[in-house]
Structures are given as C-alpha cells and as structure tokens.
Write a structure and sequence with these properties.
single chain, mainly alpha
C-alpha cells in the first residue's frame, strides 16, 4: 500500500515534476497554511498572556475560522508532501514528533476555545479564566516543537548524529 501511494501518478507528479505547480506550490501552500494557523494562534496566546491588553479577548474568537482554514490548507498540502515522500517519512521518528505536537496543538486549540472563550468571564468581557495562561503557553510550546520537528524531518542524518540514534 505504501508503495502504491508513493508511486501513484499524483505522488510522482508532486515529487518529480519540473512544474512550479507541483512541489514548489504545494510546499508554499504548506508554509502559508502554517503561517495562518500558527500566526493567529500566537496572537491569541500572547493576548491571553497579557500582551496587547487593548484587544478585547472576546473578539479573538472570531479568528477561529481563519485558524481552521490555515489548518485545512496545511493538512491538505501536508498529505500531498507525505504521499511524495511516504517511505522516508514513515521511518523518520521526527515526523512522528511533528504529528504528535500538531495533534496536541489542535486539541489545545479546541480546549482553549471551549474553556476560555466560552467562559462567562470572557463572554461578558469581565475577565479571563485562570486556565487561559496555561493554554496559551501550551499553544506556543506545541507549535514551536512541531515547527522544529517538521524542519528536522528533512535532515535525518543531522538528527541521528545529534541525538545519537
């Protein structure tokens, strides 16, 4: 099955086509999706940590659809890049670290939405729940590790030499 996916016409096109619409565009979309979700999520996290107090926290909830859009673009482009390099990625433990951190970041995103933005203090504009800072810090940590692990998936020899396995 792995062989069939990696040798499918689409995966070969992504991996080997000289067209700008193949790997280059898909990788660019992946970076743009990442910038949208992580950038907006970081703005929300920094506000929850007390930076830019002039921005009402309740208004930041309107940014969630944009974060979902960024994640959707990132997931779709990521699946295309994965199909083109499936065998290598499945044997790269940093790829699993990346996926784990993305999963934790998305769970944290939803927990932030439900536990912070649905809290009566935020809805009424009278304050922020105590848990908000924990969710904000977790968000920054998860996305930072996901980005670093994502970059390191392309350098398995470096990772092996650095970590010794």
């Amino acid at each position: 099955m792995i062989d069939a996916i990696e040798n499918s016409a689409y995966a070969v096109w992504v991996r080997e086509s000289p067209s700008i619409w193949a790997y280059t565009t898909i990788l660019s979309l992946h970076a743009m999706g990442l910038a949208i979700i992580v950038g907006i999520n970081t703005i929300v996290a920094l506000r929850l940590l007390g930076y830019v107090p002039d921005i009402p926290i309740a208004k930041l909830r309107k940014l969630y659809p944009w974060m979902y859009l960024g994640f959707t673009v990132n997931a779709a482009s990521g699946l295309s890049l994965l199909a083109a390099n499936l065998t290598n990625d499945l044997h790269n433990w940093m790829f699993y670290v990346k996926l784990s951190m993305i999963a934790l970041a998305m769970i944290n995103l939803e927990l932030t939405r439900s536990n912070v933005f649905d809290d009566p203090l935020v809805v009424n504009g009278t304050g922020v729940p105590a848990s908000a800072k924990k969710f904000a810090i977790a968000s920054i940590v998860f996305w930072t590790i996901a980005i670093i692990a994502g970059r390191l998936t392309e350098y398995p020899s470096f990772v092996q030499a650095w970590f010794g396995f």
